[in-house]
Amino acid sequence: MQIHVSRLSDRDDLVACEELQRAVLGDRARTVFTVPALSAVVRSGGAVLGARDASIGEGGALHGALIDLYATVEGYRARRTVFCGVHPEARNHGVARALRLRQRKGCQQETVDLVTWDLDPLRSDESHIAFNRLGAIATGYSRHLYGEVHDRPNMGLATDRLHIEWWVDAPRVQSLLDRGNPPAHVRLGIHQMDVLTETRLQSTGFRTITGHRDAPRAENVLVEIPVDLDRIRMEDPAAARTWRLHCRSVFELLFERGYVGIGFVHEGGRSFHLYRMADRGTVLRDT
Fold first, then answer.
1. CA-to-CA distance for 8 and 46, rounded, in angstroms?
2. pTM recorded for the entire structure
3. Which residues touch 91 (CB under 8 Å, ≥6 apart)?
4. Which of 3, 27, 164, 174 has its CA 20 to 30 A from that of 262?
5. Domain total for the chain?
6. Boundary of a domain, candidates 154, 178, 202
7. Same domain, 164 and 211
8. What backbone torsions phi and psi does residue 68 show, to the nearest 5 degrees?
9. 216: containing domain
């Protein structure tokens, strides 16, 4: 599938964006941006992007959407992504990455340095895109950030989130996106990474988290997360909640100790976040 991404502004497109959000989040979700809210985003300097199948053209159905608010962070011009989602029938076709690349192009045209968003740290697919495909980093963590939102992706779990920073023209991002280099962390051998979490394979085929160490020793550490959070939520909700609580403790510990989230590792059918003991500037210069 070839994806075409464009800005949305007329009423019909904004209606389609509202419907796309409901397809992703569910009809009971409290976080859907309705047409009046989307119109306010556009009129106040934000952006609403829509992704369609390029072979169908502008009139085709939306496969994905992204909503950005204008922001300022530490004196830098920024964008704050409040929604980025792909229709369930269009997943695994590069839609989310296409939306982000069009977002980056717009930021470069408008001299915007930074994009921020909040990411569920237990979602492997979103972590892979953020760290490995875009070059973003994680700089903080919040417990139950949104409270009860009653949407499909969060049902039954606290809305804990990693705080993501995407410096769109940082050396690490330019190396990855403009020069086609692999993420810097792939040069590290698995033997250079210390696994902080303890997990066990269950008879159900899922891994469950059983504990974690409170004293990270290495410069580069791994935190295991579920490979498929949604399947665990559906088939073993208690296990999903255990993952949330254990990983919450580990992530908070790492940020307290000065670590930064820099990558995602999938090895032997298991998924991990990769953290490095370093300051933000050092990580952003890493190519």
1. 11
2. 0.95
3. none
4. 3
5. 2
6. 178
7. no
8. -120, 135
9. 185-284
**Taking each helix axis from N to C terminus, what angle separates 11-25 and 35-43, rounded to the nearest 10 degrees?**
120
**CB contact set of 98 (below 8 Å; sequence gap of 6+):** 3, 5, 51, 64
The 10s digit of each residue's pLDDT in 225-267 is: 999 999 999 999 999 999 999 999 999 999 999 999 999 999 8
Ranges in the chain, pLDDT < 70: 56-59
180 conformational bin, left if phi > 0, alpha if psi -120 to 50, beta if neither? left
CA 158/CA 147 separation, integer angstroms: 7
Q: Which amino acid is at 203?
A: S
